[in-house]
Design brief:
Number of strands: 20
CATH class of one domain: Alpha Beta
Helix content: 25-40%
Mean pLDDT: 94
CATH superfamily of one domain: Type I PLP-dependent aspartate aminotransferase-like (Major domain)
CATH architecture of one domain: 3-Layer(aba) Sandwich
Distance between the termini: 40 Å
């Protein structure tokens, strides 16, 4: 028998906690005028779908089993493969994360070496740890606008010659900001070496259907492609697809690892949502994407004349910086307006009720989808013009002094500073298994990290276990915190507490 004692404060906190439920907040938000420039891609618009409680079942007779699909679920996955032109399509109800874990596990054996784009999502790093993989990193360059650029064909080719024992290459394309690498040529290089290319295309489920967007990685020759339907298409949060496009990856091993990483109680609501999304694109995609392009074009035209704020355009990126770019991502730079990304974000949120997807040091990112409406994009364009005009007024009145907005200097140096290459003493899995202790940020300098530290979103590591914490990293963490950015890790990085390897 256990005796649990509650203080008056505990009871008070419990009473406060139960005053309002999550569903209440969600319903209130749904009825508000806040416009979502964030995922999921359905943008809170109702599609033709039954009451979820009426179709929430388990693996009863006649409704197949996701982990051994032979019936209605198998048929739905085949429709996904046909839509994206893959050899095999797996439904994922645990998001792209479980697809990345399964694909990487399927192509590797414990101790293998892989080439990994350093700007991959944290899920890739979890796979490195769990499979005790040796990672050789491919570092993207920083564009003149201060975002992470592409991984080049030359980088991959050179690294494969230097690491002939590598068994796979893992890339993210597109990135959070929409940067696309030359997947077709990178795939060719990988295949020349007899190894598969895994592409995290979580943000590119809308690729390949017209509307002026890039081609999807499946059709470009990647061997495994993981895409989040919910990010850019009208599907429920947590829904994704894993495509196999060649025989370089054993489908049976993929199935085995999906049975490990994916829940054994998959949601039929999620699976039905994915099937409905696939059907919508197959039947109406051409018109939907044509309309989507018109809305995006109008937005970019309306915001091209901003003087201080700047909405990134195709012409901002050279072919050396990006093979292609997904302009469904609205990257809005604020530094020349004398603002941080968080300051711009707060103005858009509090004054204009526009909720953006991501905040970085000196820019914000808005996600669009084919479910956006003219009203939302017009509201954002109008808000940016009003903010821009207020900056101009403040400058004219002498209330704000800015750097020359026409300067050609590289003014967005934040990302370049944040994502650095740090000395590595051992692999992630080696450092993760060693004793550790938590210390202050100042005390951590000069020690080996026992933790993955990353900005979230986008979930790209600043440092991983086994790398040395330098004064530069400590300064970068301080700067991120001062800019109001969210830093995560195994310890309370927000409170400047880090985990270090401690022998």
């Amino acid at each position: 028998m256990y005796l649990v004692l509650y203080t008056d404060m505990d009871i008070e906190h419990q009473e406060q906690a139960y005053m309002k439920y999550l569903i209440d907040d969600l319903e209130e938000y749904a009825q508000s005028d806040y416009y979502p420039f964030h995922m999921p891609g359905h943008k809170r618009k109702s599609l033709s779908f039954p009451n979820p409680y009426e179709i929430d079942i388990t693996e009863i007779d006649g409704f197949d089993n996701l982990h051994h699909a032979t019936g209605v679920i198998k048929e739905a996955e085949v429709r996904g493969a046909v839509l994206y032109h893959s050899k095999r399509c797996f439904f994922l109800v645990n998001g792209s994360t479980c697809g990345l874990l399964a694909a990487i596990s399927a192509v590797t054996r414990r101790g293998d070496k892989v080439l990994v784009a350093r700007n991959c999502h944290k899920a890739v790093y979890h796979a490195l740890y769990m499979n005790e993989l040796q990672a050789e990193y491919l570092y993207p360059s920083i564009t003149k606008n201060g975002i992470q650029g592409q991984i080049t064909v030359e980088q991959v080719q050179e690294s494969l010659y230097e690491n002939p024992d590598a068994v796979a290459v893992i890339l993210t394309s597109p990135t959070y900001e929409g940067i696309v690498s030359d997947v077709a040529k990178i795939a060719e290089v990988c295949h020349e070496h007899g190894i598969p290319l895994i592409v995290d295309e979580a943000h590119g489920a809308h690729f390949g259907f017209g509307g002026g967007f890039p081609e999807n990685a499946v059709k470009l020759g990647a061997d495994a492609v993981i895409m989040s339907l919910h990010k850019t298409l009208p599907s429920f949060t947590q829904t994704a697809l894993l495509h196999l496009a060649s025989d370089l990856i054993d489908a049976k091993r993929v199935e085995r690892y999906l049975s490990i990483y994916e829940t054994s109680s998959p949601s039929y609501i999620f699976m039905a949502g994915m099937d409905s999304c696939i059907r919508l694109i197959a039947e109406h995609g051409q018109q939907l994407f044509a309309d989507y392009r018109k809305r995006l074009t109008a937005f970019y035209e309306k915001t091209a004349d901003l003087k201080y704020l700047h909405v990134m355009q195709n012409e901002d990126l050279s072919i050396e910086e990006a093979f292609d770019w997904d302009d469904s991502k609205l990257v809005i730079f604020a530094e020349r307006a004398g603002m941080t990304g968080d300051e711009l974000h707060q103005i858009l949120l509090k004054k204009y009720h526009l909720q953006m997807e991501m905040v970085s040091g000196y820019y914000v990112l808005g996600m669009t989808s084919l479910m956006d409406e003219d009203e939302g994009l017009e509201r954002l364009a109008g808000a940016l013009h009003e903010i821009d005009a207020k900056v101009a007024e403040d400058v004219s009145n002498g209330n704000k002094i800015l750097n020359n907005p026409t300067s050609d200097e590289k003014y967005h140096s934040f990302i370049e500073k944040i994502y650095q290459k740090y000395p590595r003493e051992m692999q992630i899995y080696q450092a993760e298994e060693l004793p550790y202790k938590e210390v202050t940020l100042e005390e951590a300098v000069g020690n080996m990290s026992a933790d993955t530290i990353y900005l979230y979103p986008p979930g790209i590591p600043m440092i991983v276990p086994g790398e040395i914490i330098t004064k530069r990293l400590a300064d970068n963490i301080e700067e991120c915190l001062s800019l109001g950015l969210q830093i995560e890790g195994g310890s309370d990085v927000q409170e400047k507490i880090l985990k270090i390897v401690y022998f």
